[in-house]
Amino acid sequence: MNLSTIGLEGPNDFPTQSYEKIHATMVLHKDAFPDKWSEFVGTWKSVGIKFIALAQNDEIFTTSIKRGRGGASSYEDRYNQEYALFNFFVAGHSLLESLFYGLYIIASIKNPIEFPLTQKSIERVKPSIVRDKFSKNYETEQITKYITEILTSSEYKESKKIRNTLIHRTMPSRTIQLSTERAIPDLWMIGENIPTDEQLTASRRYWYSQVISNIMDKTIEFTDK
Question: Which tens digit of pLDDT belongs to each residue from 34-67?
């Protein structure tokens, strides 16, 4: 099913129906809040595009890893894997930030005083700000509880750490493990040293998919009230 915002088909693990329902709800406010609508539609497009990028780079990395049996059989394979890892984690964490920003815009229509959308306030919006404002104004909402759960999770902290490392500092090196009995994946030297196996991006893609699906479902509950 194509995503109406970008005209591209969403991957099977993208919550297309929820995505489209939220978009349709926001369209109803298009004329009354043109500036907020403009900001929202750009954000919503980026959510779809970033998940597609995440999915594509998961597939690139996993295909290369399968071919190299946990490592890189050539310099070209190593480049392709590093390229895919960079794009996967940058797209994945940026996707979450865009989703939180979209939630802030939705809340600004309900509560413009507490969720102002001026140029100055836009520059300050980040997931922790969204959490704090929802905790203050919508403490009992399921979306508020879930936001807090996500931002304190080990998966979110890992996602943020890897994204920041790749963007701001370095491409982590690898430790090569050898065995005469079986192929052992290299270790990606970041955090707790992550095995470069078929689950490196696949398991994290599953987590991203579950998180955005849950956020969208709880956002629909929030907007329906």
Answer: 999 999 999 999 999 999 999 999 999 999 888 8
Query: Which among 66, 21, 49, 41 is positioned nearest to 224, based on CA atoms?
Result: 21
Burial 162-177 (b: 16+ CB within 10 A, else e): bbeebeeeeebebeee
Q: Given the DSSP bridges, would you call strands 174-175 and 2-3 parallel, antiparallel or unpaired?
A: unpaired
Distance CA 197, CA 186 (A): 8
For residues 126 and 99, give the distance between their C-alpha atoms in angstroms, rounded to a whole number.
10
The confidence band for 174, taking pLDDT boundaries of 50, 70 and 90, is: confident
Please tell me what DSSP assigns to residue 11.
Answer: P
Q: Is the pLDDT of residue 69 over 90?
A: no
Q: Which residues are CB-neighbours of 119 under 8 A, at least 6 positions away?
A: none
> What are the angstrom distances between the C-alpha of 166 and each of 115, 128, 161?
32, 21, 9
Q: Is the pTM of this model over 0.85?
A: yes
Residue 191: left if φ>0, alpha if ψ -120 to 50, beta else—which one? Answer: left
